[in-house]
Amino acid sequence: MGITSYDWGLIWDYRSELLHGLLTALEVSVVALVISVVAGLGLAMVRLGKAPFTWIAAIYINVFRGMPALVTVIWIYFGVSLVLGINFTVFQAGVIALSLLYSAFMAEIFRSALQAVPHGHREAGQALGMRDTRIFFSVVAPQAFKIALPNVGSMFIGMIKDTSTFTVIGLLEVVRVVQNVNAQTFQPFVLYTAAAAIYVLVAFAVDLLFRVGEGAFSTPPKGVVSKMLRGRKQRRIEALVAELA
Amino acid sequence: MNTVNPAADPTPGAPVPAEKGVLIGDEERAEAAAAPAPAGRRARRDGAPAAQPGVATTGDTSQPVVRIRGLRKSFGDLEVLHGIDLDVHAGEHVVLFGPSGSGKSTVLRSINLLEEPNSGSVCVDGVEYGPGLPGEKGSGKPAKRGKPIELRRKVGMVFQQFNLFPHLTALENVALPLRSVKGMKADDANRKAAESLRQVGLLQRAAHYPGQLSGGQQQRVAIARALSQDPKVMLFDEPTSALDPELVGEVLRVMHELAEAGMTMVVVTHELGFAREIGDLNVFMDAGVVVETGSSELFDHPTDPRCQDFMRAVR
Lengths: 245, 315
What we know:
Chain A contains ten helices and no strands. Chain A is mainly alpha-helical. Chain A has a single domain, classed as Orthogonal Bundle (MetI-like fold). Chain A is flat, with a radius of gyration of 23 Å. The N and C termini of chain A lie far apart (about 80 Å). The model of chain A has no long low-confidence stretch (mean pLDDT about 95). By secondary structure, chain B is α/β, with parallel strands linked by helices. Chain B is built from eleven helices and eleven strands. Chain B has helices spanning about 25-35, 40-45, 105-110, 150, 170-180, 185-200, 215-225, 245-260, 270-280, 295-300, 305-315, and strands spanning about 20-25, 65-75, 80-90, 95, 120-125, 125-130, 155-160, 235, 265-270, 280-285, 290-295. In chain B, helix 6 crosses helix 7 and helix 7 packs parallel to helix 8. Residues about 1-60 of chain B have low confidence and may be disordered. The interface between A and B is medium-sized, with 29 and 40 residues. Chain A: Pfam families: BPD_transp_1. Chain A: It is found in: Cell membrane. Chain A: Keywords: Amino-acid transport, Cell membrane, Membrane, Transmembrane, Transmembrane helix, Transport. Chain A: Belongs to the binding-protein-dependent transport system permease family.
């Protein structure tokens, strides 16, 4: 069995199916990312708040952090249909499963990020007579967001990988596509290697994207994006200084 | 006991020209002060600080900007302030000093209610904000109590750790509260912020982020930020303690200018040389009580042994 018996051309032949699978995986992940960031932020704030709500948030976080994606999506797709009679599409079930799981992780990421902002900054806001909501949105949240961003990126990569388990409910993502093509071509090594390559390349791309995002928030501004975003503001301040000097 | 109140004048109601502040302390000193002209604790607590017999006073009969009576604060079971009485009149510069853990920062932080006192009266600009004194009519709560956020809008504070917002430029640090507290338009806020930065000599650093500024510059931005809110009184909580020695001077210089411009100031500091220059009323605290008060001569001739020990130790 030499390497020649593998038909690597299959990857090119089925490129459109594979890319379609990737697109589906990304769609599910992006929608779930948005939901779990918002829900996770809310959960983090409840978790940092008063009893008994903080306990409820703690229970939620610990339950869904412990659930495997495979089990969760079966539970949502088949279980909810069985018990409540609600029939989700595979896409919906995938989004719901990922959102439930990853909002628990996001909650922990945002909780630690919010706690990492020095308490003195809140006190400074209070001493200046700023309202609590204003302190949160203008002082604490921007700093916490910057701290959380790299971890959110890691979570997003995890979400994309977890979509591979949704093959059990028949979502046409990368692994499902690979299985279908394999059933016709009997080239599992080639096809699963292709799947691995796709996931790794996407992880690289996401990492790059989030690095650019982090750069945008660096102080002082570093890199093209950051300078583009804040160059105008900077120039306005400099103009004001020149005028008053 | 060993406590002495040099500001206590034996002649009731007589003005003491050397002193501009009124400061009265715990029960021990109350006894000492009351000795020449007996006055009950209750009487002192009722307000009207200046003309009461047995009360340390300067003869300044105007309404104080800050008036603290019977301030007590506990952290858990540990009481760290055992009843502090302090008056700060307009234009006065009050210095709180003493060993660490003596409660001076807690007193300062109680003035803008960053620390909520367990009991006592905190009266700023004629409005009561504290929880009130035990034994007052009712349940110890004053009938009318101002909101902390309103109090803080009248009081500026400068912290040991500067506490600038690191994601904003120097100008934005000053302009943000102008917009959110004073409701100014962005353009007006930026202009006023730039003026405040000019006041502390940092107009040219307006576009810099805190991370690009030295500690001394950061603290000056923090002073500008507090000043731009036009406070009635400025509180300084060890403003130079986190600075490298060569950067202390620039911050003290700004504070000196502020003092000369007539700003009402309460300063917690270990810089006793600076305290001697600006302090109208110097307050030595130890173990949660005011031990000794006086004008600059306090630094040369402390009478209380604890104060003498402290002076020897820092010299």
